Structure formats: C-alpha cells, structure tokens
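ARCHIVE CARD
CATEGORY: sequence design from structure
SOURCE FIELD: tokenized fold
FIELD CONTENT:
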C-alpha cells in the first residue's frame, strides 16, 4: 500500500494544463493543409529559455494553482451553477487510494477561506486563467442558462473561445501581476470560466530529478474548439506558438525543430489515436465517468540511456522509496527491452529520440498510445 510522503521531502505544487484541440478553419489554405485523417491541431507554446522549468520546451498552456483560483468570490459569478456537488460537471468518480499519496499541497488561502471551491472546479479555473495569461485565449462563456442537448442522443458540439476585449493587453498585465484580477475580468465581460468545456484527461507527477526541488502534481484537461482561436504569446514566459497535428508535432520533434518533454510527447502520441475532432470530442464525453489516471513516472537509468516507467509496466514499483530515487542498471537499453514482456514505458534514446512501448491493456475507457519506435537510422 502507498504511504504518504515524509514532511521533509521536496515541495509539491498543484498545477493544471489544458490541451487545446481545434478543428479546421472554415475556409482558406490553412484548412486544406491538414491530412484528411487528422482533422484537428494542438496548441503548443514555446517556453522562454529563461524559465526555470522546461526552458525552451514546447508545452500545452498551464501553470501553478493560485489561491485566487479557489476563492469564494467566484460563487456569485457562477450562480446559479455553483450548487453541489460539482457546479454541473459530470458526476464524480468514486475516490480510490492511488499511488503515490502526497501531502496536502493546496495553496495558502487568505483569511482562513480554505477550500471555498471544489478542487476540480478550482483546477479548471487555473488552467483557463493560464491559457489567457500565456496565450491570450479566453475559454469563457456568457452567464445565463446552460444549453442542454435536446435528447440523450444529441451531444454538445465543441466550444468556441471568446473574442478578446480591445484592452486585452492591459487585462493580461493585471492578471499576471495578481491572479485575483482574472475574476474581475470575467465579471467585466459578464462571463464565467467555461469549466464545462474542459474534460478530465490525465494526471502527471514530476519524476524524481536530483537537482530539482519543486515537483508538480498536474491535472491535464482536454478542450475541443471548433476553430483555432488567435494566439498572442505573452513574450515573457511564452515566446512563440504553433498549431500542429499530432503527426506534425512528432515530425517537428524528430527533426529537432521543437523539443517535447516525455509527458507532452506521450500525450501527443495518445492523441494520434483519434481521426477527427468529433471523434476526440465524443470520446471525451463518454470518458467523463471514468475520471483521469494519475501517474508518477519512475526513471530507470541504463548504461546508454533512460527509460520512463509507467504504471502497469513489469519494472514499475509502487514503492514510496522511488519518490526520491531512480532505478539504475549496468545493462544497455536494448537488453532491458528484450527481457521485457509487460511494457508501459517511454525510452529516451537521446534528447530528440523517444520510443513508446505499450503491451498492457488500458483500464476501462482510457486509451494509451500505440507502440512508437524510432527508425534505427536515427539511433
């Protein structure tokens, strides 16, 4: 059984990320540039080289949970959709004890106003706020009655982002300076964060890296948009952006045009299972009752590389000792791979060469990437 972390271990910070998947534009050359089998693109933001975490990496929008994201001041703005248990979100999945158990990492809340909003609401607000701060995207909806499908067979369509206000730069500066101003912006626009458009997707914990003190417990959400909204990088934390299909992102990574950390590469390969935006959106709606799997990768250092082990792999150990250490072996990666039968792992051959090996069955309605092995000519 998993046991909680010791109090003296490194600091864990709650964070939220939103994977934006946008359909083809209604007209123009950009619409015809996508292969017929890939009817959506993903937003990737390039982080500044001055950032302490993943400098220069291409990532999905996201950041650390702020006390303002949990504030009770949101309640009046969400009314009447603030009723228990989850603000009109899909029914909560049963709570299960999962590995690892972490200490409470909630942000400090002023004036004793702890846990004013449910965690899954606050985390969605965090992801939406960060998308605005980093990329200028407003995942908001006007206040008022929510539209309900006419029948059980009628699924909601993918959403649209809100057109940014003329003074968007001023508002972004305010929000970056103090996250509480995001609520002020929503009130000014008479909108609420569109928490209902964000679907539980996955959860990633930062693996143990000796030189890093801060580690993150990050919720990944997926949001389907009908068309790609205009993106305005903040030019501070984020210096560039691109919309790429999963296969385009993989090719850009292999050609060293961009760099992806293992979780982003894994998620991009997972998303290549979906042929269209409608296919992906339908999966998200059906997947809602499953909740999200939350994983702590365990790093195995080999004689010539590194392997990231995920739950279900035969070498993965649900042992709290591995929260603060890595596995190591004198064997080469190829030897380790030949010996394995029950696999769920990402092999890092070099900075721009990853392989994914999955031989286990996904749980419930979850979906894992297909095996992806780089051509030997790259090695």
């Amino acid at each position: 059984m998993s046991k909680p972390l010791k109090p003296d271990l490194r600091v864990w910070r709650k964070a939220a990320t939103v994977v934006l998947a946008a359909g083809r534009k209604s007209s123009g050359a950009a619409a015809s540039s996508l292969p017929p089998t890939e009817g959506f693109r993903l937003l990737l933001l390039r982080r500044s080289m001055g950032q302490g975490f993943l400098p220069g990496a291409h990532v999905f929008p996201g950041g650390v949970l702020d006390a303002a994201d949990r504030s009770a001041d949101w309640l009046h703005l969400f009314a009447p959709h603030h009723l228990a248990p989850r603000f009109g979100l899909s029914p909560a999945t049963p709570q299960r004890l999962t590995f690892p158990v972490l200490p409470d990492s909630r942000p400090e809340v002023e004036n004793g106003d702890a846990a004013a909003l449910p965690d899954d609401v606050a985390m969605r607000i965090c992801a939406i706020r960060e998308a605005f701060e980093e990329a200028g995207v407003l995942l908001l909806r006007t206040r008022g009655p929510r539209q309900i499908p006419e029948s059980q067979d009628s699924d909601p369509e993918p959403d649209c982002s809100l057109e940014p206000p003329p003074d968007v730069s001023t508002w972004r500066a305010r929000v970056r300076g103090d996250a509480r101003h995001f609520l002020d912006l929503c009130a000014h626009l008479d909108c609420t964060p569109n928490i209902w458009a964000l679907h539980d997707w996955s959860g990633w914990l930062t693996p143990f890296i000796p030189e890093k003190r801060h580690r993150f417990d990050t919720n990944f959400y997926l949001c389907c948009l009908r068309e790609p909204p205009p993106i305005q990088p903040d030019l501070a934390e984020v210096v560039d952006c691109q919309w790429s299909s999963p296969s385009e992102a993989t090719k850009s990574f292999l050609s060293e045009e961009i760099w992806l950390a293992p979780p982003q590469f894994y998620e991009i390969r997972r998303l290549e299972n979906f042929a269209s935006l409608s296919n992906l959106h339908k999966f998200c709606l059906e997947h809602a009752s499953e909740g999200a799997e939350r994983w702590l990768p365990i790093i195995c250092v080999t004689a010539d590389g590194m392997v990231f082990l995920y739950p279900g792999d035969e070498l993965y150990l649900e042992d709290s000792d591995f929260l603060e250490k890595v596995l190591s072996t004198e064997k080469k990666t190829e030897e380790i791979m030949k010996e394995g039968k029950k696999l769920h792992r990402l092999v890092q051959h070099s900075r721009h060469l990853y392989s994914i090996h999955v031989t286990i069955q996904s749980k419930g309605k979850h979906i894992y990437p297909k095996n992806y092995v780089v051509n030997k000519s790259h090695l």
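CARD ANNOTATION: The mean pLDDT is 86. Residues 81 and 87 are 5 Å apart (CA to CA).
SHELF: design records, drawer C
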